[in-house]
Design brief:
This protein is α+β, with helices and mostly antiparallel strands and 373 residues long. The protein has eight helices and 15 strands. Helix 2 packs across helix 3 and helix 4 crosses helix 5.
Length: 373
């Protein structure tokens, strides 16, 4: 295909405009061509950035229109407001309403989420199930007084129409964990591979925008980067990433988000290979649920030995994790890009020797709920 035809096909694929036969052909092409796969990832990131820029331009334009309207109505003195002062005035005047609008928009985001399946290559015999979860509907339960809502209802609707609030319907949910305090995370590729918008939430409920840096579908590994001014760089990662294989019967535990708050589970390594002898993964004896995908698997020394990814559908308490050594493979490949040449994985566990309860306390701030649309 010519370059322009390839780019057109990539954009139609990302936007879901292909018919089933075209999509199947293109997905097979992605599997056999790393260049096409990388182009899909890069173009998805490009569209995300363009979408954010467009939303900001609309917001600025709506503020300008609102200022003009208020000036015409004589509610403000336009001559006294210059440049950024206009924006500051509007924010101060409408911040209460905007806050309520934001709450409503946030609740609406969760309320319109529907149960869908995330595309990813499946096991041939359908006996293995991915552990990403769908974002459930949540009922609106606000303690806001009814009179205040009624009094501000019309004004909220006006503000929403002015700034064109369009909540993002996140559908896929999983877990990710930091590998660098500057905001780099690891998760499963099947959670975010086709997402145009990604958000991550910490155990305190703080949500941040994130972008897909690189995906490795053959390893089911994705590298994300928190791209949000509100995120503060964290100190040294408390856990290390292990390069070594673990021993059968070694005790392990996981932290993940099968629901909206962090959940601890414990078990043991039951086999050094995964489903049907797959050497990419290892088998765990542990209870795992949808939402645990992408979560770290720790040994008793507080080292990450794997990334929880799937479970067996025909057996209880059997799950599979991508071996941690493949995180090093992914990062080494990513570092070929000069923008990431200084990215280093944490090797030393600072929680070694602590009991499990203390380890979890120190680790949980570095494990995030990952959402994609």
């Amino acid at each position: 295909m010519e370059d322009i035809q390839i780019l057109d096909a990539v954009e139609r694929y990302i936007k879901g405009e292909m018919n089933p036969d075209e999509r199947l052909h293109f997905e097979n092409l992605r599997k056999t061509s790393p260049e096409i796969d990388q182009l899909v990832v890069e173009h998805t990131l490009f569209l995300q950035q363009m979408n954010r820029f467009g939303e900001w331009k609309k917001f600025r334009s709506s503020l300008h229109d609102t200022h003009t309207r208020l000036a015409e109505q004589g509610k403000i003195d336009s001559a006294r407001l210059k440049g950024k002062a206009k924006v500051i005035y509007l924010w101060k005047r409408y911040k209460r309403v905007a806050a309520i609008a934001a709450i409503i928009a946030g609740v609406t985001t969760l309320a319109i989420s529907t149960l869908v399946n995330i595309f990813t290559p499946q096991a041939d015999n359908a006996r293995v199930q991915e552990l990403s979860r769908d974002i459930p509907n949540i009922k609106h339960q606000q303690n806001m007084q009814v009179d205040e809502v009624n009094n501000l209802k019309n004004e909220v609707n006006n503000i929403k129409s002015k700034i064109n609030l369009q909540p993002i319907p996140y559908k896929a949910g999983g877990t990710g964990f930091l590998i660098d305090g500057k905001g780099f995370l690891v998760t499963n590729a099947h959670i975010v591979l086709t997402s145009r918008h990604i958000a991550v939430t910490n155990n305190k409920g703080e949500q941040f925008h994130a972008v897909l840096v690189k995906a490795y579908p053959d390893k089911d590994i994705a590298i994300l980067k928190i791209d949000d001014d509100r995120f503060k760089t964290l100190s040294t990662i408390p856990y290390g990433i292990s390069k070594e294989e673990s021993d059968v019967a070694e005790p392990i535990f996981t932290l993940g988000y099968p629901r909206n708050d962090i959940v601890y589970s414990e078990g043991y390594l039951s086999a050094k290979t995964g489903f049907n002898g797959d050497t990419l993964s290892c088998q765990l004896g542990i209870a795992a649920n949808r939402g645990n995908s992408g979560g770290p698997v720790f040994n008793h020394e507080g080292e990450v030995i794997g990334i929880l990814s799937t479970k067996e559908t025909e057996a209880e308490g059997v799950a599979f994790a991508i071996q941690s050594k493949y995180i090093f493979t992914a990062i080494n490949e990513l570092r070929k890009d000069t923008a990431y040449k200084n990215l280093r994985l944490p090797l030393k566990s600072n929680v070694r020797g602590l009991d499990t309860k203390q380890q979890v306390k120190k680790i949980q701030d570095y494990v995030f709920f990952v959402k994609g649309d």
